[in-house]
Model the fold of this input.
Amino acid sequence: MPTGGDKDSIAPVILKTVPELNTVNYKGNSVSLTFNEFVISDELSTTLLVSPPLAKKPVVRTKSKTLTIELGDSLRQNVTYTLDFGDAIADNNEKNALEDFRFAFSTGPEFDSLMVGGYVLNAINMEPIEEAVIVLLYDETDSLSSFRERIPKYIARPDEEGFYSFTNLAAGRYHLFALEDTDNSLTYNQPGERIAFFDSLVVPSYPEVSGTVSIDSLNPPGAADSLSTAADSLIAEAKSLSGKLKIDSLSSAEILIPGGPDADSLMPGRQTKMANIKPNYLLLFKEITFENFLDNYTRDQRNLIRLYFSNSVTDSFSVNLLTPRTSNTDWSYMEYNAGRDSISLWINDTLVSGKDTMMLQVKYETLDSLSLQAMVSDTLELIYSKPVQKERKRKDKDEVPVISNFTFKLNVQDNFDSYAPIVMESPEPLETFDYSKVQVFQKVDSLEELVPVKLEQDSVVKRIFRIKHPWEFEASYRISIDSAAAKTFAGEPSAPVDKEFKIQKEDYYGTIVLDMKEVPGNSILQLLKNTEAEEVLKQEFIKKNGLVRFTFVKPEKYKIKLIVDRNQNDKWDTGDFDGWEQPERVVYFSKILKIRSNFEIRESWVLPEDIQAKKELIDEDQNEKDKKDKKGSKGQQRSKTPQGSRGSGSFKTTVQ
Done:
């Protein structure tokens, strides 16, 4: 049975453009692209980026195989415009995208072709941020306040790797910014938006050409010869041979430029020149701002009120109970989350929590209309609605009433870490807690010996208690909490606890030894989980070169991160735009470390002079696995390929 031929895998080919690519003295107000097949452009309304930005949003129309972009009547004279289509144009059948396509023209006699490029990364973890991020250029003569008040001269959008490029710039010097533009205003006007700025003015240049690449297999038939002389502009998002950016994070990037008159297609590839640029890194951060408001509040249980703010509250935050009135000054206590923008208000007074309706006044610091710090207050009405319960059968008169109690949540288990404290957490604040009713025993042969331990209450979350002790490897222990050792403010006693646990073997753990070199002063060296969240497991504070040891490390995979602690406060700090301070720099060790039991890993880490190094982590274990999988996959593919079938095209690189 006929199969219908090979599946179409070629992107749409441009046959004609109006105006022609890189046209000068263009007087029209629209751009038309005619393709060799029907295309879809549903995403263009949100993806298309015109730089310099227009006063009004372009209108996109499709008729037959022609795509038209109406630019309006706001085009300025003697300006080179760039239309960045991203991957939004695709063929109608197989959705093959015309990747990273850009088109440029000039309304004057000169065609600008200078370039600025680099990466936009999240300052805290050096990862790209795709959503809503734009990069902006302002003239040297613009004040820094222009970032807040007016749209920029040029705009660009980073790709999924965080790479951005301005490809048709006029000569000059520019202020360079990045913005998480949540309201699409092209200005920094929202306190929650993340921003980035480059320390100095940037000077665009035409990239230095270093070689030629011929990609014959990517030359689709039918492209007009008139579109092949784009020797002065950069195409797409600066792609390398494999279609991805190749960049040395410390020195230069390889940028593809359409080749000379022997190039015969507008499509990416086909006689391109390789050019070197030094990337400009932009590190996104969210400023600490005093502009604040109460975002939400709830009372889902009688004795707990949750308050949610747009930003962190300061120490001046306060709560005043309006109704019901009480003489108890300790009617509540507050728990803050790590960011101090979420507050749990526990009601300790049962006469207060017993009321279905409460009135609170909350006071917090924010900025007034003159951007000065001021205290504001909100009055809240909180109504508790008791959950509807199923009707219970009538109690027998001889039935003994059940006394409700609560149970401490404990973290102990078998193979408990020798360095870990026992953590006890109560579900509600406690009115009383008799520490003497908490005991720990060590099993020695058939007997138990009482272990002298000290119970400590957490300084922030008062419902959490810890027992720290040098546990013996492979030893067995038992923790016992007597009945009614603690009582909540509602009078609910604690349930008895009796739980056994065993300590992990000593040879289960591994050790990491890092020989730190070129340490840039006060720094925080962190051992992270190999997950997206990168939970900090251990950290050391260092000031100079030398050996750093992480002991009792579980046999898993880990990342290593260094924070340059500029202000020596033992934590990472964000940036400040008005103070022109960058966020504290972070850098990652280039390898993901796989730890084995009873094994010591030694690594030398020479920290780069430029701490703004792109995050590229090598997982040698995963790479080896991928190679084996790929080798097996190729073997299976060869066994299934009919003799005489045509293979894929090859890449050939030549240096001029």
